Amino acid sequence: xxxxxxxxxxxxxxxxxxxxxxxxxxxxxxxxxxxxxxxxxxxxxxxxxxxxxxxxxxxxxxxxxxxxxxxxxxxxxxxxxxxxxxxxxxxxxxxxxxxxxxxxxxxxxxxxxxxxxxxxxxxxxxxxxxxxxxxxxxxxxxxxxxxxxxxxxxxxxxxxxxxxxxxxxxxxxxxxxxxxxxxxxxxxxxxxxxxxxxxxxxxxxxxxxxxxxxxxxxxxxxxxxxxxxxxxxxxxxxxxxxxxxxxxxxxxxxxxxxxxxxxxxxxxxxxxxxxxxxxxxxxxxxxxxxxxxxxxxxxxxxxxxxxxxxxxxxxxxxxxxxxxxxxxxxxxxxxxxxxxxxxxxxxxxxxxxxxxxxxxxxxxxxxxxxxxxxxxxxxxxxxxxxxxxxxxxxxxxxxxxxxxxxxxxxxxxxxxxxxxxxx
Length: 423
Description:
Blueprint: H1 2-15, H2 17-25, H3 38-61, E1 67-68, E2 73-75, E3 82-85, E4 88-90, H4 92-95, E5 100-106, E6 109-114, E7 121-125, E8 130-135, E9 137-138, E10 144-145, E11 148-153, E12 160-165, E13 170-175, H5 176-180, E14 188-191, E15 198-205, E16 211-217, E17 222-225, E18 231-235, E19 240-241, H6 248-254, E20 257-262, E21 267-272, E22 277-282, E23 287-292, E24 302-306, E25 309-313, E26 322-328, E27 333-338, E28 357-363, E29 369-379, E30 381-384, E31 390-394, E32 399-403, H7 409-413, E33 417-419
Parallel strand pairs: 2-23, 3-29, 9-10
Antiparallel strand pairs: 1-19, 4-32, 4-33, 5-6, 6-7, 7-8, 11-12, 12-13, 13-14, 15-16, 16-17, 17-18, 20-21, 21-22, 22-23, 24-25, 26-27, 27-28, 28-29, 30-31, 31-32
């Protein structure tokens, strides 16, 4: 905004003789009692304008990001194969959903988070598609939560999962069989340490009994913790470079994104939420490549005061890029949910549902786009089943299933689901 104002001011000076004379009178090398020629006045005026605009722009840009730490750019080419998927909607009366915001597949169960329900967590059996149990109230008790950020399947026990409460930084482990027997207490609690460099927003377990985190960090892209929640080290450079150290936390918020770990190849992928970029690292935090597409755009936002601190806010350039990322380990396929939409309407600057998308890119182990999936409804969160060709998606009010290649028969014939509108 300030840069546009600078351009406007410079143009105003160039076009209006009144402003030209005022500017000339303020310079020491021009004597107002003399009568220099018009050419001399014009030449000096141009020099002054150039210097003034340069200095003003330099001052403005010094508060912005100067450059990025991205390297080895690779564009995700548009695939030749496009597949349209038709959604199946779970019967709302069966679940009584208010605001489903997250989900995970744990063994043969689907764990669903409904943030506005009295009992926020719901267990659904995938074979029968029936709701078996609901639990999890608001609070700070052993079986309560304040702000659930994630549902994480346990890597070793197929009927166990973890709930990460970002407000308390508690990572709680639960067993489905215990919950079905009305034992809602967590089996284990890991308290993620509060390091000086920031707080993790999303976590993932590695096969080496380490916990990786992406979040609001000051010195590194990822944090590594042990199984007791103690901070081990930070890895990876921050993707942005700024001269103002005060706002690194806010910039980290602007570059936030979901991430996955590919254990077989030892790689970490971070999908940038407000940019069309996927960062690919090795397990030591070295940036291997910067994937982007269908076009290239970086996070855009403003940093504004919020009480005694600062926060980021949307501006007219803010766009949503990759709003979710999932990995199918058995098929070795990466799934990227893409939006590409502006947060504010370009006409009236009103907020839009930009954090929703209906395009999913499917990548192989060489980061080649094999297929583009086009959904009939927009979603903001997804999970991909390991065995059956299914994508589960959330719309904010609905739980949808998108069968790939017609999907398994038990889903298509089940009465708990109903086909959505046809294409």
